[in-house]
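Structure in, sequence out. Go:
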C-alpha cells in the first residue's frame, strides 16, 4: 500500500480493514482503518502499531521508507489490541527501540507480552521527546477511553496524534476529511463521528470537556488531528473539536427514536399510532425494531434524538429480552440529557413497563410518565390512546429541547 506523507517527513503507514463487520460487538458496516504514523527524522519514530492481522501491511509500508531496524522510538499511545497487538512484531525488527508509554500503559503491556527485554521510558503529560527537527509532547488522557490512553503532539508540525479520540470506523481510500467529503459526503462523515462517539465515548463526556480544556490551556496550535481510526482532520481540525464538545454537552436533534420489539405484533401496531402522533406534533421520528437492528446502530440512533420511547411486550412479567439487553447496554454508556418513555402490550399481569421505568431511573435519565400498556391487541380506543401518547410525548420533548437553545 502507498504510504501517505501527512506532514513533512511524517507518514501514515497504517492499514485499511475493508472486511471487519464486528468490532468487539459493535457493528462496523463500513469497516475501519488502523492508523499509525512514522516520523522519518534523525531518530526514526513510530507512533502506534496496528491490529495484529494487519502487521504485515504496516511493516511493509514502513519498509518502503526505511529498514525497520532503524526505528529508534516506538510511542504507544494506547494498548488496546487494535493498536498494540503488533508491538512484538515491531520490537522483533527493532529490538533496540525505546518504547514511550504511560505508567498504566506499561503495566497493561506487561500483561500482553514478555516485555522483559524491551527498553521503556515512562512518560506523563508535559514530557517530550526530541527526534531531531521535531519535538513530541505527550499528553495523558486517562479513561479516554482506557486508563493508559495518551495523545502525542508534534510541536513543529502542529500535529495532534489523537489516538482513538476524533476517530471514525470508516474504511476508505480517502485519508483526509476533505478527500472523504469530496468522494462521499459530509453527512456520511458526521454520521460516522456520532456512531463512534455514541458507542465508545458517550460515558466520558465530562472527561472530554475537561481534557479539551486542558489541551486548549497548553496554548498549542493544532492544524491537523490524526486519529488512529478513519480519516485525518486537516481541513477543519477545530470543527471536530467543537463537535466533540457539542456531543459531550449532550447535543441532539429535536427528534424521537422509538426502539421496540414485539411478540405477536401488538407492540408493533402501537408504534404506528404513536409515531403518527409524534409526527402530527411536528417532531421527527425514527422507528427501529430491535430484532432487526444491531445494538450499536440502536445506540447511535438513540443518541441522535432528544427523546426515546422503548416499546416492549411483557414476557414472564418482565421486559422482552432484546429491550432489556438494549437498556443494560445503554446503562453502561451513562447517557445524559435525554427523556425516556415506555409502552407495550401484555396478556395479563404486565411488568415490562414497570421494569423499563425502573431501568430509566437506574440510568438516571428523565422520564415521561406514565407509560402506556395495553392488553393483548390494540383496540380502536387503544389506537387513539397510542396516538395521544405520541403527541403528548412529542410535546414534552419539544419543551425540553427548547431548554438547550
Ligand atoms: Fe481503537 Fe481503544 O482502540
Amino acid at each position: 500500500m502507498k504510504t501517505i506523507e501527512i506532514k513533512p517527513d511524517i507518514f501514515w503507514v497504517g492499514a485499511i480493514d475493508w472486511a471487519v463487520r464486528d468490532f468487539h460487538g459493535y457493528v462496523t458496516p463500513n469497516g475501519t482503518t488502523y492508523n499509525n504514523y512514522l516520523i522519518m527524522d534523525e531518530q526514526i519514530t513510530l507512533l502506534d502499531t496496528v491490529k495484529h492481522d494487519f502487521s504485515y501491511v504496516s511493516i511493509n509500508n514502513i519498509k518502503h521508507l526505511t529498514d525497520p531496524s532503524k526505528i529508534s522510538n516506538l510511542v504507544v499511545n494506547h494498548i488496546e489490541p487494535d493498536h498494540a497487538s503488533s508491538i512484538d512484531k515491531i520490537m522483533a525488527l527493532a529490538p533496540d527501540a525505546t518504547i514511550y508509554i504511560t505508567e498504566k500503559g506499561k503495566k497493561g503491556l506487561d500483561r500482553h507480552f514478555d516485555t522483559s527485554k524491551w527498553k521503556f521510558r515512562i512518560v506523563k503529560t508535559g514530557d517530550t521527546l526530541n527526534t531531531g527537527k521535531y519535538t513530541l509532547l505527550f499528553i495523558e488522557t486517562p479513561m479516554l477511553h482506557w486508563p493508559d490512553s495518551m495523545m502525542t503532539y508534534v510541536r513543529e508540525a502542529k500535529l495532534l496524534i489523537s489516538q482513538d479520540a476524533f476517530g471514525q470506523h470508516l474504511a476508505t481510500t480517502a485519508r483526509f476529511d476533505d478527500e472523504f467529503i469530496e468522494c462521499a459526503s459530509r453527512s456520511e462523515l458526521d454520521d460516522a463521528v456520532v456512531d463512534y462517539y455514541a458507542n465508545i465515548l458517550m460515558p466520558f463526556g465530562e472527561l472530554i470537556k475537561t481534557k479539551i480544556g486542558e489541551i486548549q490551556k497548553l496554548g498549542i496550535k493544532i492544524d491537523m488531528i490524526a486519529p488512529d481510526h478513519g480519516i485525518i482532520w486537516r481541513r477543519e481540525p477545530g470543527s471536530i473539536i467543537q463537535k466533540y464538545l457539542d456531543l459531550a454537552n449532550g447535543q441532539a436533534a429535536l427528534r424521537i427514536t422509538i426502539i421496540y420489539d414485539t411478540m405477536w405484533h401488538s407492540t408493533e401496531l402501537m408504534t404506528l399510532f404513536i409515531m403518527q402522533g409524534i409526527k402530527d406534533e411536528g417532531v421527527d421520528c425514527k422507528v427501529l425494531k430491535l430484532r432487526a437492528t444491531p445494538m450499536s446502530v440502536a445506540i447511535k440512533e438513540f443518541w441522535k434524538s432528544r427523546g426515546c420511547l422503548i416499546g416492549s411486550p411483557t414476557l414472564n412479567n418482565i421486559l422482552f429480552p432484546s429491550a432489556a439487553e438494549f437498556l443494560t447496554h445503554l446503562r453502561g454508556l451513562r447517557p445524559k440529557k435525554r427523556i425516556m418513555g415506555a409502552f407495550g402490550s401484555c396478556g395479563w399481569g404486565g411488568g415490562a413497563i414497570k421494569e423499563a421505568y425502573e431501568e430509566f431511573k437506574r440510568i438516571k435519565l428523565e422520564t415521561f410518565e406514565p407509560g402506556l400498556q395495553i392488553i393483548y391487541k390494540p383496540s380502536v380506543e387503544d389506537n387513539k390512546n397510542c396516538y395521544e401518547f405520541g403527541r403528548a410525548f412529542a410535546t414534552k420533548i419539544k419543551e425540553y429541547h427548547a431548554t438547550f437553545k
